[in-house]
Amino acid sequence: MGHDMLMVGVDGGGTATRAVLTTRDGSGIGYGVAGRGNPISAGVEQAIDAVREAVRAAVASSGRAMSDVSVIVACLAGQTASGAGAELLRVRLGEDGFSGTLGFESDLLATYFSGTAADSGYAVVSGTGACAIRVEGGRIVATADGLGWLLGDRGSGYWIGQRVAKAVIRDLDDAGPATGLTPLLLEAVGIDPFGIRSPGAEGRPVALEQLVAALYARAPIVLSSFAPLAFRSVDDPVAADILRRAGEHLADSLVAVLADRGPLVIGGGVLSRPGPVRAAFHRRLGDGAVREVVPVDDGAVGAGLLAMRAGGCPIAQDRLGRLAETVAHVRRSLVHDPPPRASGAIL
Amino acid sequence: MGHDMLMVGVDGGGTATRAVLTTRDGSGIGYGVAGRGNPISAGVEQAIDAVREAVRAAVASSGRAMSDVSVIVACLAGQTASGAGAELLRVRLGEDGFSGTLGFESDLLATYFSGTAADSGYAVVSGTGACAIRVEGGRIVATADGLGWLLGDRGSGYWIGQRVAKAVIRDLDDAGPATGLTPLLLEAVGIDPFGIRSPGAEGRPVALEQLVAALYARAPIVLSSFAPLAFRSVDDPVAADILRRAGEHLADSLVAVLADRGPLVIGGGVLSRPGPVRAAFHRRLGDGAVREVVPVDDGAVGAGLLAMRAGGCPIAQDRLGRLAETVAHVRRSLVHDPPPRASGAIL
């Protein structure tokens, strides 16, 4: 043991953090999962904990030791090597027995390299948040949106979920069209849909007051959990309109960073499947703007490639292929991380 | 002492809570102020504390005792007599020596009756939040918007402040027009505007990253504190457009509840002064929709009238006039509550 160089790439996502342990030749030999790892939405401390836990799990799953790892690259939203959490993560990983090199990359770049080894191209990621990037020379050179739920993320799961909530409120308030989203949302938040039009105080139905109170009792970002209600209601005109506008917003974000033709990697559940969002996205984008479209489940494989790059192994298509295949194999052998699509979750 | 019936009306506002102590004939003989009293934005516990403190201050300012008070009416957003906080407030006021009747009304109705004694009419309130109501027979019978910062409040101080932030982000990101709001907002959040275009990571200027981080470090509702930047920039096309749209949203909310002609009471700082919001509001509304427009500073006097009504004294124009005059007199005598306009705050 310990005779070859091992590297770990970590993709800190909004709902889960994934770590890939790889050899120099691009064989994924370990894999680990932990909780929320986005320093912006989950907080720096929680993201650091998730990175540590995922790394330890990946190393443990391979039967190797932390001291065998020479490079760790953490792909985290907004985190830089000089950021607040960088030194803390270094210390914590040191406590776990790691004495190698720690690097940082963007989680968006990890998503990009999960789908292509091309050193120039694009990624559009729409999960809980939404962002478009242009990659040149293996680095992000332009970014559109990705501004978070409060200031942007147009076309994201949050954006869709918030529009679902607003559409249902307008329906209940007689201020907008009736929609099949209304009984679905009321059920989702635990409000009895029986007699939803019965009048309450101040000229509004009881269900409206209950819904507004229920939504404010949750964290704002939880609105993203209502996006699947729109995907379940594509025949409903109100839901279809929300999904169409989401696709258009995502296309607009991509257009804002477009230059030369290149591959487009699609991350996150909103755009990953055929349907109204994807159709509106391509309609708005037009033909010829991108060379190929590659959907990916997450940024785990790309994080592994970025760790290999940091360890001196340039990113190349054959390495991506080998890593993706071996990681998929290791992943299937671990019961605690079912493939994202099978779970029915879209985010 | 204690030979006549005293009543206290309390207006729980988003930034301050005001209590008026009145006699049966409508003479304001006591006045008290406390902190945030909106149970939805400040939380039920904090609102209850603010109501208690304002009531105690009002009673103390008159030299009377809590046991002399026979009726208290708390005008609070979303609070009903059967609501979670009602029993707790009853218990707390009992501990303070109150053994009379406690009633609840909407804070919006308190604003309405601060401006008119007419039993039918309208109020549009736009401060931190935004709402329109129709009053008939002295009760609120229809409400538009008032859905809070996350789900509505279009045309509110929060709405304006969020648009200011988004416009500045678009400017810094080269995704929208340049605006004079940019240096104002950067200064307001403590970012050095020197070299604001200098490039940072991922193809974006350093100032953009700093601004986004600074905004997420604050509570979302704090965005409302940037609304005054738009009011200071009425000659800037971007700011003027935001203010115009705010006025139109407020007019749309009023139109949604309009029926017969009636007086219109205007509460909150966004619409209270002449300027682009007010102009757009009236342009959108058209002539003849409302009978007269009465701006009010807050809901204190109306809360006092509602307390009198609960004590058996019907609301009438002469009582409103007397109460407004005497409350203004008591208020001027208290150094701790300068008139809202003089402070320069708009919310």
Structure description:
2 copies of one chain form a homodimer. With 347 residues, the first copy, chain A, is an alpha/beta fold. Chain A is 41% helix and 17% strand. The first copy, chain A, has 12 helices and 10 strands. In chain A, the strands form 2 sheets. Chain A has a 5-stranded mixed sheet. A 5-stranded mixed sheet of chain A has the order 8-7-6-9-10, sandwiched between helices. In chain A, strand 7 (130-136) and strand 8 (139-145) form a beta hairpin. In chain A, helix 4 runs antiparallel to helix 8 (237-257) and helix 8 (237-257) crosses helix 10 (276-285). The longest helix of chain A is centred in the last third of the chain and has 21 residues, at 237-257. Chain A binds chain B through residues 40, 78, 80, 106, 108, 133-134, 140-144, 147-148, 150-152, 162, 165-166, 169, 173, 175, 201-204, 209, 212-213, 215-216, 220, 223, 256-257, and chain B through 40, 78, 80, 106, 108, 133-134, 140-144, 147-148, 150-152, 162, 165-166, 169, 173, 175, 201-204, 209, 212-213, 215-216, 220, 223, 256-257.
